[in-house]
Design brief:
By secondary structure, this protein is α+β, with helices and mostly antiparallel strands. 25% of the residues lie in helices and 20% in strands. It has three helices and six strands; from the N terminus they run ββαααββββ. Helix 2 packs across helix 3.
Length: 159
């Protein structure tokens, strides 16, 4: 023989004898910039616009690079600088020419952005980190640093 028990129970939002709950506070429905000396309405979630903008640009920040990896990247950057300077002084600034010059140093995974006026480049260094910079008919910059927070050696185009 099987016995089934069924029952009803009313759930109470608070234990019996507890004081009534406090009135709920309004839930923010909009983000409002903090302005010194201005009280925001209760439906605003305050934020610091300058801090928010700085955090929005963090994807471009570079990771730290240990000294031994930096040294190896600096050595490889000399070859990149020489190849790009030869290309630049020959008057052949283009995305294809930059890629060819860098690949001629033995490095792979080259990123480029630009056109015949100026080409930004980034390439993984032999032991990690990046060699990056920009080349135009007027100038050449070559730097060494860690990967950007977004990954890779250059920010995505349009950023």
């Amino acid at each position: 023989m099987t016995t089934v028990l069924a029952g009803c129970s009313l759930a109470s939002p608070a234990p019996l004898g507890a004081p009534p709950a406090a009135t709920p506070t309004p839930t923010p429905t909009a983000a409002c910039p903090q302005i010194e000396g201005v009280d925001l309405p209760p439906d605003c979630a305050p934020y610091d616009p300058d801090k928010a903008m700085a955090e929005n640009d963090r994807y471009r920040d570079r990771m730290d690079l240990p000294d031994e990896i930096r040294d190896a990247a600096e050595d490889a950057a000399v070859s990149v600088r020489t190849a790009l300077e030869t290309m630049r002084t020959a008057g052949d600034v283009s995305v294809d020419a930059v890629e060819d010059a860098i690949s001629g140093t033995g490095l792979a995974g080259i990123q480029t952005q630009g056109d015949a006026r100026s080409v930004a480049f980034g390439v993984a260094a032999p032991e990690g980190g990046c060699i990056f910079g920009e080349v135009s008919a007027e100038q050449l910059t070559v730097e060494v640093g860690g990967y950007i927070m977004d990954g890779g050696c250059l920010p995505a185009e349009g950023h």
